[in-house]
Each structure stands twice: as structure tokens, then as C-alpha cells.
Amino acid sequence: MAEEASSLVGIIETTVEIKSSPEKLHDMFVGKKHHIPSASPSFVHGCELHEGEMGQVGSVISNNLKPINMWSDGEARVMKERIESIDPENNSVTYRVLEGDVMNEYKSFVITLQVTPKEGEPGSVVHWHFEYEKINEEVAHPETLLQFAVEVSKELDAHLCSEE
């Protein structure tokens, strides 16, 4: 039985280079998450605080994600998440998905975002890390959601750069 369960558990990750500083992008995903819909209108339709304070550990936020070609069914998605940890010094934040469309396919889903400075040049590297457990073998690994995170990062970066 343990062997079967382990095949349902996975980790996928990716990085994307951006022009913004680590602090600016981290702040957007933590303290200014409610600004993301206006900064990334192609991908995020809305963001609502349900519990706690925006940018604080324990706060619960729902994100309304726009229907895009990446989703196989072209439907809008909702993701309700809680901030599990924030590390401002390392520009890192971890969210646990609590409810929404993602949880129709996964028993657990944890997203960690870390933004680090590029070595020897301006800009940053965004590192997305997803840890998850699928409900069964038919569920695909969340590559589509990972690509979605990359695209949102790029659009937020363009927005932040246009503000400078």
C-alpha cells in the first residue's frame, strides 16, 4: 500500500527570470496580493481576503483565476489558500491550498515561492515549488498550474517594471 501512495505524491518546480527586484515581487505575492488582479489581468480575475490580515501568516485568501487556454476545459478556476509561512529575509512565502478546483484532483497542495537576486546583474529569479498528493493515478501532475504561475510572474514583472 505504501508503494501505491508514494506514486501519488509529487514535487515539481521551475524558475523564471524577471527584471524586478526580489522584494517587489515578493511583496506583491504577500502584502499586496489584492493588487494582483489589476497587475495581472490576463490571468487573475479577483482576490479576496477571508480571514486574518493581508500579508500575515494564517490569512486565508481566495483567487479567481481567469479561463485561459492552459486549462484543458477553458473554465475559470478558484483557489482558496492560507499563508503557512513568510520569510521576508529570503523573499519566500508558502501557501497551503484549502479549497477550490485544485482540490478536486489533489488531497494536498502546497505552493512555495522564493524570489532571489540574480548573480552579478539586476533582476531576480523566481522559484516556484509545488508539493502535492493526487487523489488517484488518473490525475495529471500540475504542470499546467506551474506554467500558469510562470505566466503570472512574467505579467506581474512587466507591471512592476512599468511603474518604475
From TrEMBL:
Species of origin: Brassica carinata
Start and end residues of each Bet v I/Major latex protein domain: 7-163
Origin superkingdom: Eukaryota
Taxonomic placement: Eukaryota, Viridiplantae, Streptophyta, Embryophyta, Tracheophyta
One GO BP annotation of this record: defense response
Pfam families: Bet_v_1
Protein name: Bet v I/Major latex protein domain-containing protein
Segments traversing the membrane: none
PANTHER family: MLP-LIKE PROTEIN 423
